[in-house]
Amino acid sequence: MKILTACANGSGTSLMLLRTVKKTLEKMGYQVTQADHTSISEAKGIARNYDVVFTSIPFINMFDEVKKRGGEVIGIKNVISAKEVEDKVNASDIPTKFKK
């Protein structure tokens, strides 16, 4: 699965979120084939190339195009919470779209 994390500036928050998401997904048994982090402005242009976009909750509506093509957009409140990531992944369509 190809994942993208995005925050306002594309440096600190998105990098922390990327580390949390990648580690959590792999612990859950998913194969992450590509993992990148970037700013919201850049992410809007490249998100179509990813299976799942993780971002802060206020930004999820900026990725409606990803949802329209069948991708997943997951809003995260606490970027270092593996439990929140796991709960949100389990509540999404990821378990049915991607095999462990």
Automatic annotation (TrEMBL):
Tell me which domain of life the UniProt entry assigns to the organism this sequence originates from. Bacteria
The PTS EIIB type-2 domain sits at: 1-97
InterPro entries in the record: PTS_EIIB-like_sf (IPR036095), PTS_EIIB_2 (IPR013011), PTS_EIIB_2/3 (IPR003501)
One GO molecular function term of this record is:
protein-N(PI)-phosphohistidine-sugar phosphotransferase activity
**Per the record's keyword annotation, is Transferase included, yes or no?**
yes
Q: Which GO terms describe its biological process?
A: phosphoenolpyruvate-dependent sugar phosphotransferase system
Claim: DNA-binding is one of the keywords in the record: no
Q: What are the protein's UniProt keywords?
A: Transferase
User: Per its record, how is this protein called by name?
Assistant: PTS Asc IIB
Query: What's the source species' lineage?
Result: Bacteria, Bacillati, Bacillota, Bacilli, Lactobacillales
